[in-house]
Amino acid sequence: MSLSGCGGDSAKSSSSTSSSQAASAHVLDGITVSGGDAKTAPTIDIAKKPLKAAAFETKVVHAGTGDTITDKDLVTVEYFLVNGTTGEKIDSNWGTPTGFDLSNTQLLAGLRKSLIGAKVGAQMLSAMPPADQFGPQGGSAQLNIKADDTLVMLYDVVKKIAILPHADGAEHKLDSALPKVIWNDGKAAVITMPKSDPPTKLVVKQILTGTGDKVKSGQTAVVSYTGALWRNGKNFDSSFDHGGKFEFAVGGKQVISGWDKGVLDQPVGSRLLLIVPPDEGYGKAGKGDIKGTDTLVFVVDILAAY
Question: In whole angstroms, how far apart are CA 11 and each of 14, 15, 238?
Answer without folding.
Answer: 5, 6, 28
